Amino acid sequence: MDSQIAKVTKDLTTAADMRKTTQMLMQPNANWEEYLTPAPLSIAIMGELVFISSGTDFSINKNPPKDGFKHIKYPESFRACLMQVCNSGWHAFNMAHKNMDQIRIHTGSVPDYMKAAVNFLFNDDDEIVKEYLPNQLDSIRTIADECVELADGVEKKYNDVICLIQELLEACINAKHIYGEDLEKVKNKIKENKMREQSAKELNEKYTKAMEAMEKQVEEAQEEFKSSMKSFPTGIELVGMEIADALSQAVAVIGNAVFAMGAQRTQQCTQDGSSEQVVQKTETEKEDKGSAQKIYSTSSQILRLATTFLEYIEKDKIKWNELYDQKNKKPRTEFVKNQFERIFRSIEKEEKSKAKKKGLSLCDTGIAICEQIETYSPEETWDKKTTQTLVKKVKKLHQDAQMFDSKGKKMCNSPAFAPTPPMMAKAQANAGQQSAGKQALENARFRIEQSREQLKQCREEYNKALERMEGNKKELTDILVDMQNCNVKEIDFDTTIKMLIKGMDAMGRVKEQWEKMVRFFQMVANIVKTSLAKTMIQFADKVEDVQTLSYNSKLFTKDLLYNQAFQASNIASLVHMISGTYCEVSNKYLMDRVSSLSKLMTMDKDKPEFLQERQKLQNSCQEAQDNILKLVQKNKEEFEENTETRMKQIEGGLKAILPAADPEETKRIQEIVQASMTEDDLDDYA
Q1: CA distance 100 to 150
Q2: Number of alpha carbons in the 13 Å side-chain half-sphere of residue 421
Q3: Is it the case that residue 382 has pLDDT exceeding 50?
Q4: Residue 365 contacts by C-beta under 8 Å, 6 or more apart in sequence?
């Protein structure tokens, strides 16, 4: 049965399946469509600014900044400033289209490099691996570096437009062209925009810190594996190998958590009674998640150690004949105790949090159970009460470890099913078994429920993102309709200011997604840098460990290299999907409008053709808005279908070979997973 479960699990965690799962888990956060919807509005607003600039002109240079303007080129002419905004916006959208297409092409080649890297990793000749693997990884790093530069260039272009509009609004205030209620609105909008910038800056700082922690985690994993190897027990070698597998996966879990952080919104937009957008600092108000994420990355190791005890329990009795090592005259729990102590020391270094408190408590309980088991000897057998007390402790520890692991999966955005890395899979196959006992059945059921809850929550979060977008739809449509009803005589200065504010908001939303792109590629580059600078050096070291296991430190390092390369490939795959969507939307619905804007800026405003072109631009932007929303709806339906298909794939594959489950046990597992993955107490995350 164990080998069947392992085979089906392997079939469910192929590289292609895990890439799709990563995309599904990241979809609510990396949802590009939500940021495409303001694009037509941005273009339409710039078109109206061209139209407005034909009105009365005036100077905004009456009370300039002491150091002069940083972005405004023509402060003596408000009309010229509006045209400067339009020009900057036109260049930003043009660069976005060109650079995103290059990103699409670059990321499309990553899977080929990944395949070549895996081929070299499977090679038994270490010299070939050392000679050729770095070239494949370096090719991925080069792509990442180039994409960072491409995405960063676009993000800065949009930022230039936003800064220009903000400086223009501040200049209008200083020149005393804005009064009363409108003055307060403009001041608040400028303040909100500065909060956005501060929020983005803080998130970037946290992201950089998290990437550094991820790099350190790779080094620690290698050192921890080496120390753990020295105490691998005889008789339960497979337990040791499974702990090594969980240790290797911890690096990937941290990577998932950092990736999720990179996809976070830097602010949350809501609507007040006046339908104006209010920026609320959300992520930056919370404590730093990095420490908690590192603690939760140990959850799989803790759960596996807690499961080990259950291998020696049959109903309410302990199988001492298996647990007690007659040759060495002691129970086979020394290795488990050492691992709990190692994890305890690791968690103890982290910042104070509920995650830390819970993690330390689990390790303490595990250590205490081991110490109690050590008091056993065949000469002094335990009475029924002592045995039952220990069994209750073991079962309680296992249940708490399941809850901790479920919370860890949610916190780190990590899939319930993780692929066994190639060298570990090979070593397990050579050992003739795939799992360390009867708990493989319960573990499979537990992972099924985790997957079900993850995908369910993923769909709910994605729907919430689309609801936010639907909430903005009316406001965006109303703005376009208002602009269509304006004529040059009706447009006053207040109308111009309101359009500038809306333009700054819309451009800010588009810019935010480009900030994410920069972070994504920074992570890919960082992963490969860590692989080349740290992991490959460890791989090149001579293996001096005295061991009886076939799975040594060099094979463990190979698996670490695989995990890192696979993760970099996963991110590139997600970005390739996003870039493809953007290019499709840009080709169909944006670039023609941007070209029309360019034409509008060069036309004579006194000729009837100007008004015709303006009307054409307005209508096409409204059409683009509608078509993008149709695309969003189509993507939503595909997303729901994909999550449903994935769940059926998991259930169909595993449930077909699992014996019928006790309904009470199934209900218990569901309650553990749901309670752990849906709790909203923010203190549990930091």
Answers
A1: 8
A2: 30
A3: yes
A4: 393, 396, 397, 400
Instruction: Answer whether 257's CB lies under 8 Å from 22's CB.
Output: no
User: Alpha-carbon distance 508 to 92, whole Å?
Assistant: 12
**CA distance linking residue 200 with residue 515, whole number of Å:** 8
Q: Is residue 233 helix, strand or coil?
A: coil
Element (H, E) at 271: strand 268-271
Query: pLDDT band for position 525 (50/70/90)?
Result: confident
Q: Which residues of 392-402 are buried (b: 16+ CB within 10 A; e: fewer)?
A: ebbeebbebbb
Helix (H, G, I), strand (E, B) or coil at 72: coil
Q: What is the gyration radius of the CA atoms in the chain, in angstroms?
A: 29
For residue 359, pLDDT beyond 90: yes
Residue 328's SS3 state is coil
Q: DSSP string spanning 203-265?
A: HHHHHHHHHHHHHHHHHHHHHHHHHHHTTPPSS-HHHHHHHHHHHHHHHHHHHHHHHHHHTS-
Per-residue buried b or exposed e for 318-337, using 16+ beta carbons within 10 Å of the residue's own CB: bebeebbbeeeeebbbbbbb
Q: Which of 38, 155, 44 is nearest to 468 (CA)?
A: 38
Let me know: does 154 contact 96? Beta carbons within 8 Å: yes
- The residue among 424, 436, 315, 642 whose CA lies nearest residue 5 is 436
Rounded CA gap, 513 and 523, in Å?
Answer: 16
The neighbouring-strand residues paired with 325 are 330
Q: Residue 324 in 3-state DSSP?
A: strand
Record the tokens describing residue 151, joined without a space: 């995405």
Cα separation, 170 vs 673, in Å, equals: 52
Crossing angle of helices 439-484 and 38-52, in 10° steps, is 20
> Is the predicted pLDDT of residue 576 greater than 80, yes or no?
yes
DSSP one-letter code for 683: G
Average pLDDT, the chain: 77
Tokens at residue 470, please? 């639907």
Return d(Cα 667, Cα 651) in angstroms, integer. Answer: 16
How far, in Å, CA of 97 to CA of 94, rounded?
5
Give residue 329's region: left, alpha or beta (phi > 0; psi -120 to 50).
Answer: left
Tell me the C-alpha distance between 122 and 140, whole Å.
19
Place of tokens 């259930």: 651
The residues that bridge with 278 in the sheet, in sequence order, are 270
DSSP one-letter code for 288: P
In tens, the pLDDT along 120-137 reads: 877 777 788 888 888 888
Q: Which of 113, 14, 10 is nearest to 565 (CA)?
A: 113
Query: What percent of the chain has pLDDT above 70?
Result: 79
Q: Is the dihedral of CA 429, 430, 435, 437 positive or negative?
A: positive
Cα–Cα dist 582/35, whole Å: 10
Q: Which tokens sit at 385?
A: 């009460």
CB atoms under 10 Å from CB of 681, counted, come to 7
Domains of the chain, by residue range, sit at 2-210+217-685
Q: Which residues contact 45 (CB under 8 A, 6 or more apart)?
A: 479, 483, 499, 502, 503, 506
Q: Which 8-state DSSP code applies to residue 331?
A: E
* Whole-structure pTM value: 0.76
Tell me the C-alpha distance between 175 and 72, whole Å: 14
Are the CB atoms for 323 and 312 separated by under 8 Å? yes
